[in-house]
Amino acid sequence: MSELSGKKILLGISGGIAAYKSAELLRRLQDQGAEIRVVMTAAACEFITPLTFQALSGHPVAIDLLDTESESAMGHIELARWADAIVIAPATANTLGKLAYGLADDLLSAVCLASTSPLAVAPAMNHVMWSQQATQDNLNSLRQRGVHIFGPDSGHQACGETGEGRLMDTGALVENIKTLFSPPLLDGLKLTITAGPTYEAIDPVRFIGNRSSGKMGYALAQAAQQAGAQVTLISGPTSLPSPHQVKRIDVESAEQMLQASLDTLDDCDIFIATAAVADYRVRQIAEQKIKKSADSLNLELVKNPDILAQVAARADSPFTLGFAAETEKLEEHALNKLQHKQLNMIAANQVGQADSGFNSEYNALQVYWPGGHQALPRNNKHILARQLIQLLAEHYKKEQ
Q: Strand, coil or helix: what is 357?
């Protein structure tokens, strides 16, 4: 039975072009057994008609705060009490601002203010609007009050530009909404995750790096937090926003990531290494910018420390989950790392494929453990993260 079976979800729709995706979201939530009521802002009605959602939900759509017929029975209070959870998808920058400041000048914001149920928002807006400090301040304010932030994704936008601000994929949204009702799989456990690339300096302006975006690690950090864990995220250089209620430590080099990782181990139950740590660093970093002169430049590289191997080799090592990004012989290389580094589990993915792995919203994983294997087919990284956390939790409990 789905976590959403029998749950009453109030779907709020605010005025952005992504409102057309809300119809599909409503349908998918119904497929999971949820009962849906819809509240739309006046601006949302300019993008998609209330009749669409009335036909899909089987209930009238609520729009007006000052509707004398519904408000004679205090309609906004009734809706607030009815809902087991409120999900606003899409949530525009304007709606996020209203919620952050506690405004209640339309029905949707009034219902949110009058409710004690879990509230989740799925932002959707132009990437410049998303990156503005005012928007990020509003989001931080909402996070501090326990509002769940789902997304956004990045990619091509309706305005013709590309960047972060797309409404989260419908399937990933459904999976995230489930977490509002799921029992905490990792309740009370302390978990450290490394994510992103490392940058190994050549001189003050150049570095050796890789293509990792950090998206898989950040999705895992959010999924682990939603599963009840206390999460520390050790992140290499990335522009991704910090996951909700996750402690983030920013580092740049492999040596810095190693030290930050070791510093967490005295109080760590599970260690997940998703970071794409550079294998080598420059032996001697130039103090000044190296000028272009000769036709060739020789750099002496030395091997970086193997962070995961050092963590797993400790006598008091936590449960360890490693990642292996491979271009060939995926199973062979993954099993070799699992055994050589003495890991509890390893998740391997094939990189270099179109729209999967590095810098993509999607991935596919082959997960191995001593004597076992499970495939997690290509999916949105948020969904994969939840699936992997569930698998990890099952094996962690078996080994305790």
A: coil
How many Cα atoms within 13 Å fall on the side-chain side of residue 255? 9
Q: Do 212 and 69 have their domain in common?
A: no
| Locus of tokens 């290509």 | 378
Whether 120 and 229 share a structural domain: no
Task: Look at residues 143, 178, 213 and tell me which one is the last residue of a structural domain.
Answer: 178
Among residues 45, 112, 159, 268, the one annotated as catalytic is 159
Are the CB atoms for 88 and 10 separated by under 8 Å? Answer: no
In which residue are the tokens 């119809």 written?
Answer: 23
End residue of a domain, out of 144, 178, 212 = 178
| Residue 363: CATH number of its domain | 3.40.50.10300
Q: Would you call 112 a catalytic residue per the annotation? A: no
Task: Indicate the pTM of the whole model.
Answer: 0.67
| CB neighbours of residue 367 within 10 Å | 21
Distance from C-alpha of 45 to C-alpha of 30, rounded to nearest angstrom: 22
Banded pLDDT at 222 (limits 50, 70, 90): confident
Helix (H, G, I), strand (E, B) or coil at 114: helix
Residues forming a β-bridge with 119: 86
What do you get for the CA distance between the two ends of the chain, in Å? 27
Condensed to tens digits (0 to 9), the pLDDT of residues 102-117 reads 999 999 999 999 888 8
